[in-house]
Design brief:
alpha/beta, 8-stranded mixed beta sheet, 3-stranded antiparallel beta sheet, about 35% helix, globular, AB_hydrolase_fold, EC 3.1.1.-
């Protein structure tokens, strides 16, 4: 980028990276739950992608384009309950058990009794849910398992400071561009290309800010604010409500999920995760942003050759967003090494040393 050139923080549609989008219906005792999935590819194993807490399936957008160009595979990126565009009856139940069952139910709803070979790939919370899904045998055709930057010891240590981290984030944003700019400048996502598609799945319009007259116009998913002073004979009783509305008009976007309220589930996501991961009787891959993240159980397991590990330096926690090509290369190599998928486009395996 040339010096002085302004960076483009405008949002980008999911359709630039995925081939299709589908809302999958899952029947349960209380009715129907609707799970949003984004898909690409028509042949090869299914890579079922599970995002981290507060993120959405769109966090896998740039990775999807990268992996599809390297190996023959199918992508299914899922919005977990309480996240993205998924709509469930009880969106506050984010227990590992419930979310793992969701994954199994979505696979069954999509493929019936004969699902294709599936590899579960999860980032952070999604990595934990992938392990819980695998260890509970909820995906009968499971080929392999990949966790991205989630280790029990590190995660449990980090829980103590998580509320402080969440309190330090802005509660609202003036626009989608403002949210995307914040995500990059704060370091939450270090890759602008990914942030432009991913942040759309993390934030939503505040409720109750649009009116039939349309004081805001929606253009390609971007809210353009029109500054109009409406003078009228509102009663005093309405004044406070109007003031609140004005605040929302100034900052019309907020987080889709209040992660601080999910604290009671955090321990259940990560406690015992290392041994659960090691006990899964399938080929396993662990991708980390730093080798210092390994805990004792995983260190011993790695020395015993129980899983393949690769460290991707110079990444933040959102490894698959910060370095989508490197993650795609590692996953593609893993798939080819185990003869789960065929390379395409002249992709050459580079087997990591560890």
């Amino acid at each position: 980028m040339s010096p002085g050139r302004k960076r483009d923080f405008s949002p980008v549609s999911w359709s630039q990276y995925f081939e299709s989008m589908e809302d999958v219906e899952v029947e349960n005792e209380t009715g129907k739950d609707i799970f949003r999935v984004y898909k690409s590819g028509s042949e090869g194993p299914v890579l079922l992608l599970l995002h981290g807490g507060g993120h959405s399936a769109l966090s896998w957008a740039v990775f999807t384009a990268a992996i599809i160009s390297r190996v023959q595979c199918r992508i299914v990126a899922l919005d977990l309950r309480g996240h993205g565009e998924t709509k469930v009856k009880n969106s506050e139940d984010l227990s590992a058990e419930t979310m793992a069952k969701d994954v199994g139910n979505v696979v069954e709803a999509m493929y019936g009794d004969l699902p294709p070979p599936i590899m579960l790939i999860g980032h952070s919370m999604g990595g934990a849910i992938a392990v819980h899904t695998a260890s509970s045998n909820l995906v009968p055709s499971l080929l392999g398992l990949c966790m991205i930057d989630v280790v029990e010891g590190t995660a449990m240590d980090a829980l103590n400071s998580m509320q402080n981290f969440l309190r330090g984030r802005p509660k609202t944003f003036k626009s989608l561009e403002n949210a995307i700019e914040w995500s990059v400048k704060s370091g939450q996502i270090r890759n602008l290309e990914s942030a432009r598609v991913s942040m759309v799945g993390q934030v939503k319009q505040c409720e109750g800010i649009t009116s039939p007259e349309g004081s805001k116009s929606i253009v390609e998913g971007i809210i353009e604010e029109e500054e109009e002073d409406e003078e009228g004979s509102e009663s005093v009783n309405k004044r406070k409500k109007e003031d609140d509305m004005e605040t929302k008009k100034d900052h019309p976007y907020t987080w889709r999920i209040e992660l601080a309220k999910t604290e009671k589930y955090w321990d259940g996501w990560f406690r015992g995760l290392s041994n659960l991961f090691l006990s899964c009787p399938i080929p396993k891959l662990l991708l980390l942003a730093g080798v210092d993240r390994l805990d004792k159980d995983l260190t011993i397991g790695q020395m015993q050759g129980k899983f393949q590990m690769q460290v991707l330096p110079q990444c933040g926690h959102a490894v698959h967003e910060d370095a989508p090509d490197k993650v795609a290369e590692a996953v593609a190599t893993f798939l080819i090494r185990h003869r789960f998928a065929e390379p395409i486009g002249g992709f050459q395996c580079v087997f990591p040393g560890c």
